[in-house]
Amino acid sequence: MDIKKNLEEVLNNIELAEKRSVTGEKVKLIAVTKTHGIDIIEKAIELGVKDIGENKVQELTKKIEVLKDKVNYHMIGNLQSNKVKFIYNKVKLIHSLDRLSLAKEIEKRASQDDIKVNCLIQINIGDESTKGGIELRDTEKFVESLLEFNHIKIMGLMAIAPDTDDEKLLRTCFKNMFNIKEKIKSKGYEGLEMKYLSMGMSNDYEIAIEEGANMVRVGSKIFGARNYNI
Ligand SMILES: *Cc1c(COP(=O)(O)O)cnc(C)c1O
């Protein structure tokens, strides 16, 4: 696996897609390293990767223990409330805030330390029962319900698009995300940033960027296929 070549290609594609995007904004790459070992991640860091994404708390904490502050950590997977304590003060961003009970736990932990935890709200954009996230139509209500949590900083929205080659459907999903983000941003809630739109993975990141994503989470296009048995 030629990570260097893959990474260059992804970064190049991101740059080209930025030029076609509705916003023209710079896009941040989160290299998704789940299932991959420390040596591979260290190589990616050497090649300039600054942010990595992991979807399991146990795997993430193991990697943090070894890599320490060499890289920024993003929690991108479903997060159980009883595992918040292991990561809330170690990650740069939690992408998967999707329920009030989870927000309460993050708020509780963060307030004890008097820190703010950066979070994105995960939207179930394809209305898929197998995926986490709140329903699109509940987004504003959910955001408003989080405003009282002083130790949670809402930085934007995240979505995992349906696993499909239907480009039209993907674009509709991404557009809906962009529109709701802009709508909430325009309300100008105090303490709410609505800066990031985290969407787009290996198969759809260029489309996502064109439709307004400014954070993409790319794994297999950089590191190759995952082996879940390790
Ligand atoms: C695994 C994963 C990704 C990356 O998937 P690829 O298709 O390998 O790019 C992105 N986001 C989330 C939430 C993931 O779990």
UniProtKB/TrEMBL annotation:
InterPro entries linked: Ala_racemase_N, PLP-binding_barrel, PyrdxlP_homeostasis
Task: Specify the domain of life of the species encoding this protein.
Answer: Bacteria
Q: Does the keyword Lipid metabolism apply?
A: no
Which UniProt keywords are given for this protein, alphabetically ordered? Pyridoxal phosphate
Keyword Transmembrane helix listed? The answer is no
Residues covered by the Alanine racemase N-terminal domain? 6-226
What Pfam families does the entry give? Answer: Ala_racemase_N (PF01168)
N6-(pyridoxal phosphate)lysine is found on: K34
Q: Which NCBIfam families match?
A: YggS family pyridoxal phosphate-dependent enzyme
According to its UniProt record, which protein family does this protein belong to?
Answer: Belongs to the pyridoxal phosphate-binding protein YggS/PROSC family.
Task: Give a short account of what the protein does.
Answer: Pyridoxal 5'-phosphate (PLP)-binding protein, which is involved in PLP homeostasis.
Q: What is this protein called?
A: Pyridoxal phosphate homeostasis protein
Instruction: Record the organism.
Output: Peptoniphilus koenoeneniae
Q: What is the lineage of its organism?
A: Bacteria, Bacillati, Bacillota, Tissierellia, Tissierellales
